[in-house]
Predict the 3D structure of the following.
Amino acid sequence: MTSRNRQLFEQSQKVIPGGVNSPVRAFKSVGGNPVFFQRGQGAHVWDVDGKSYIDYVGSWGPLILGHAHPEVIKTVQKTSENGLTFGAPTEAELEIAELICKLIPSIEQVRLVSSGTEAGMSAIRLARGFTGRNKIIKFEGCYHGHDDSLLVKAGSGALTFGNPSSAGVPQETAGHTIVLDYNDVNGVEATFKQYGSEIAAVIVEPVAGNMNLIAPKTDFLKTLRTLCTHHGSVLIFDEVMTGFRVGLDCAQGLYQVQPDLTTLGKVIGGGMPMAAFGGRRDIMQCLAPVGAVYQAGTLSGNPVAVAAGLTTLRLIQETGFYDNLANTTRQLTEGLTASAKKHGVNFCAQSIGGMFGLYFSKNIPASFSEVMGCDKDAFNRFFHAMLDRGIYFAPSAFEAGFVSSTHGSTEINTTLAAAENIFATL
Ligand code: KE4
C-alpha cells in the first residue's frame, strides 16, 4: 500500500462514505486499503504511485476490449465534439437498439438506461405492470442492482459484507420478494405450486457472477422457463454481466433458454454508463409513453455512451473474438488449478467465456451454501500476495473475474508464475 494511495484513501473517507462510490471497491472483504488507479491501457492499470497491475476486474466486466481501446476512445472523442447529450432521440440510439435486437433474438424491443440497477428495477416494475401481480422470485447470492425489491439477500457488495439484506428496505416491499436457492429445481417447483398465480416474475443471473461464478445446472434454467410459461409469470434473465461476456449469443444462447425479458449492461456501454432492458414486444409495449408502466431517464441513450457501446458491439463480432477470449480465460483457470494441485493447495477454478471463478475448496461450488463453504481467508491471502506482485483480482471472494481481448500469453504467464510462487508458500 503506497503512500499516495493511503493519503487519498484517508482524505476520501472524510467526504465519501467509506472513501468509495461503490461498496465492493472498499476492500472490506479482503482487508487492507483500496488501490486508487490513474491510468489503464489494454490489460494493465497503474495506481497513483505509478505501480502497474495486470487487471482481471476490468471495471467489473465492461472492459471486454481492455482499457482505452483506441477505436473506442476515438469514437468517444469524435462524438463528444458534437455535444454530450440532447435529451432527445438520436439516430445512434436507433442503431444500437436495432443491433441489440439483431444480436439477441428474444429482444423484440429494447429501452436504454444508464445502469444495470435501472435495468433490473425497470424490468421488475414492467413485469408487475404486465401481469398485475406483485410477487417476484430471486435467488440468494444473485445481485441485480440495488433496487429495494431486489436488495433482499443480494449477492455482490451486500454478500461481501456478509449482510445479505440491506437496511432501509421496507418489509412491505421485501415481503413480495421470495428468495430461493440457486440451482434448486425442487424449491422453485414447490414455490410455483404454492404461489404460481401470484408470481409476476422470476429474475435470475443465467450464470451467477455475484457470489463468485456459479454455473447453472443442466435443467435449472429450462425449469424456470417451463414454470414461468405455465403460470404466466415473466422470466427475466439478468445478463448485465453475462451479456456479450460469455459469448456473442449471451447466456440465453449458450444454454438455449429464451427469457421474456433480458437486462443488459457493462459490455454494451464499452466502459461508459449504459445499460438496457428488452424482450417480448407485448410486454415492452406496456412501457410509457405507449403503456401504463412508467420509466424514464435524463441521460438514457446518451450519445457518447451509445457511441462507445456501438464500437464495442462492432468489435466483439469479429471472427474468432470469443474463441480467443475463452481460450485465454481457460489458460488462466487451468494453469492456476494445475499449480495449486502441484503444491497440495485446496483450490479449483472454472471459466465460462471471458469470465472466471477462483475457489479455495476441493470442488467447484454449485450453490450459494457451497460458495460460503470455500476458504475465504485463503482467498484473501492469495489476493494480497498477488496484488503485491502486480496482479489485480476482484477484491472479494464473492465476485467473478474477467479477461479482456488484450490479455495474452505474457499476462497469463506472468500471472501463473506469481501464483506458482504463492501456492508454494500459502
Ligand atoms: P450497476 O447498477 O452496478 O450498473 O449494475 C447492477 C448489476 C446488475 N446485475 C448484475 C448481474 C450485476 O453484476 C450488476 C453489478 N455488478 C457489480 C459487481 N459484480 C458491479 C460492481 C459494483 O457494485 O461496484
The domain at 3-64+320-423 is CATH 3.90.1150.10 (Aspartate Aminotransferase, domain 1). Confidence is low (pLDDT under 50) at residues 157-164.
